[in-house]
Amino acid sequence: MVRLIFLDLDKTLIGEDYTPSPALPIIEKLQSIGFKIVFNSSKSLAEQEFYANKLKINPIMIVENGGGIFIPKDDPVSQFVNEREGKYGVLKLGLDYSLIRRELDQIADEFCLKYYGNSTLEEVVRFTGLPIYLARLAAMRHFSETIFSYCSTGFIEILRDRGLTVMKGSRFITVTGKTDKGKAARTVIELHKRLDEVFSVAVGDGENDVPMFDVVDLAIVVGGLDYKEAVATADVAAAVDFIETNFKRR
Fold first, then answer.
1. Under DSSP, is residue 90 helix (H, G, I), strand (E, B) or coil?
2. What is the distance between the terminal CA atoms of the chain, rounded to a whole angstrom?
3. pLDDT at position 228, please?
4. Catalytic amino acids?
5. Which residue in 30, 160, 195, 246 is a FRET match for 240, CA 20 to 30 A apart?
C-alpha cells in the first residue's frame, strides 16, 4: 500500500518566519513511518523547490492551489504523465498565468488590487514578510495570482463570473482556473492507484485546503479552521504525532 501525505506549506509545515529547518524533523518522522510526501500549496514551483532542497526530499509538488502537478522523473507514477518540463513530468490543471493576469489587470484600479504582477519586489516583501530571495521565487507564477490587498471584495464575484476560481488561504486570496487543491490531490491519488492501494492523509490550515480534505482518507487541521470531518491539532508536530500513534507502519 502507498501511504500519501499531502502537506500545505504556509502556516502548516512552514512557520510564519518561512524558515525550513524546523520542518526537517517533521519530514524525517513522516518518512520513517512510511509516508510519501506530497507538497500541496499555493506556493510557486520555485518556492517549493527551495523548500524541497532544504528539507532534502524530492516530492511530488502540487503548486499554486492545484494549478499544476510536477512529478520528479524518477518517481514511479511519472511513467503515466506524457508532458515533460526539464526533470519533471507535468500535469497542467489550471489556466496559464497570463490569462489570469489579464483578467485582474482589467479590474485592478477599480478594486485597488495589489498582486505579484503589479507589485514591485519591495512591495511583495512588505505584503508577505518574505525575505527578498524568497519573494523573487514567489513572483515566478505559472498558474495563479495572489491578491495581497484590496479596497472592496466585489472583485470576487466578477472573477468567478468570468470562470475563475477565487480561494482564501490562511493569509491571502488566490485566483486560479477551474481547479483547486482537491482536484490535484485526487489526480495524484488516482495515479498511485494504478500501482497499488492508497491510504491518503492531508494536513492544512486554510479554507483553500478544504477541497483537499474532501478527497483524502484522513484530514488533519492545524490551527482554528472549522472542518467537522477533520482531526483538529494545534500544529503540524501534533498532527504528525497523531499519525505516528495511529498509523505507524507495523
1. strand
2. 12
3. 83
4. 8
5. 195
Task: Give the Cα separation of 88 and 63 in Å (integer).
Answer: 13
> How far is the C-alpha of 169 from the C-alpha of 163, rounded, in Å?
19
Q: Which fold has domain 1-250?
A: Rossmann fold (3.40.50)
Distance CA 250, CA 140 (A): 42
d(C-alpha 225, C-alpha 206), whole Å = 6
Write out residues in the chain with pLDDT < 70, as ranges.
249-250
Distance of alpha carbon 201 from alpha carbon 241, whole angstroms: 13
Q: Where are the domains of the chain?
A: 1-250
- Measured CA to CA, the distance from residue 206 to residue 179 in angstroms comes to 16
Model confidence over 148-181: pLDDT tens digits? 999 999 999 999 999 999 988 778 899 999 999 9
- What is the pLDDT at residue 249? 67
For residues 207 and 171, is the Cβ–Cβ distance under 8 A? no
What does residue 218 show for φ and ψ, rounded to 5 degrees? Answer: -140, 120
Cell numbers given for 137: 521565487
